[in-house]
Amino acid sequence: MSSCIYGHLPNGRFTKEHVLHEAFGHFRGALVLHDLVCDGCNQEFGRTIDAALARTSAEGLERYRFGVKQPPEIVKFRFGKVTLRAKVGGDFEGAEFVQRFDPTRNKVVSQLVPAVAVRRKDGGGFVHFTEEQIRDGGWLRNPEVDWQQGFKVFGGKADLPRLEALLQSQGVLPAVRKPLTPPPDGAVTVEQEFEVTSEMQRALGDQVIIE
Fold first, then answer.
1. N or C: which end of the chain has fewer CB within 10 A?
2. Are 113 and 124 within 8 A, CB to CB?
3. Alpha-carbon gap, residue 93 to 109, rounded angstroms
4. In a domain, 176, yes or no
5. Is 32 within 8 Å of 17 (Cβ atoms)?
6. Is the same domain home to 174 and 129?
7. Total-model pTM
8. Cβ pair 207, 19 in contact under 8 A
């Protein structure tokens, strides 16, 4: 019995292997390997490295923008290796967003991530802290920031009272309060930061050269 190209004896049968992952679309003339990859390997790679590429990478997120995946399926995407930050002057500079499905408009929309931005001591902008980082109190010992010089609280209507109460419990009280001013036209340019993990590298590079 022939082994599959990954050196395993096939457990049952060989299956088709799409060199260009079908999660990113169907392409005319795309290379498909026949009788070379066993069903066990195909399923294992689909569950691990292929899923990591499709659901945690920058390329995976682009599937929703280009219509490869339907908007409600954005719930399967796991942010963490991809970070979206506002790249726009004003109060929302550096604020973090995630993509969520809006059923009322049947589309993917950007949603603010609850966070606190604290002004740097040198006056050179703000350092952003997640709600978890605020909750553990470690941010108060950060030598780069001074909340008394100013801080901003980001989040939805349900998030703001919770974050403000958390800050107050740590002795952080603003001398002056004012609402954040959104961009005049409501449009926000978003900058994308992403990490290429070892799983993603394997998914991109795990190809076979057939001589």
1. C
2. no
3. 18
4. yes
5. yes
6. yes
7. 0.79
8. yes
